[in-house]
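YM 10:42: Methanogenesis marker protein 5 sequence, as discussed on the call
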Amino acid sequence: MKKVFIFPPNSLILGDLVERFGHKPLMLNNVIGEKVRSAEIDSPPLNITDEDPKKGLKYAAIEVPSGVRGRLSLIGPLIEEAEAAIIMKNAPIGFGCVGCERTNELTKYLIRRKGIPVLNVEYPKTEEEAKIVVKKIAAFLKELEGNNGVSE
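YM 10:58: structure's back
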């Protein structure tokens, strides 16, 4: 079983696919869920503490807005833990996008820099394209044990 980071990091669809093929999806939803249920958060739905933007400095410079650093303080550790990644390109915001392009750019950069196996797929626009995407994801996840490259 590999730990697979998914992008968008809160996509339930990608998370479900990864799990169905016997791997652990690394998702933002799980991290936020833990934070919201933690006694450390005074008033949910505030999902970050005052310390999170400071932790985000590990992943982004001080000049980067605190919201981006706050998001990266949650996403960065997931990327560090990841053994592989699936990136859905051009997904609509309703698919699971965090809605912040700067965070998205930095997230994809951190994934590339890590050098783990990555599957890049285009968001499907038809049922036939969706079937092809699922087949690509299935093949990628099945081959993870011996794959060290980047898939397109």
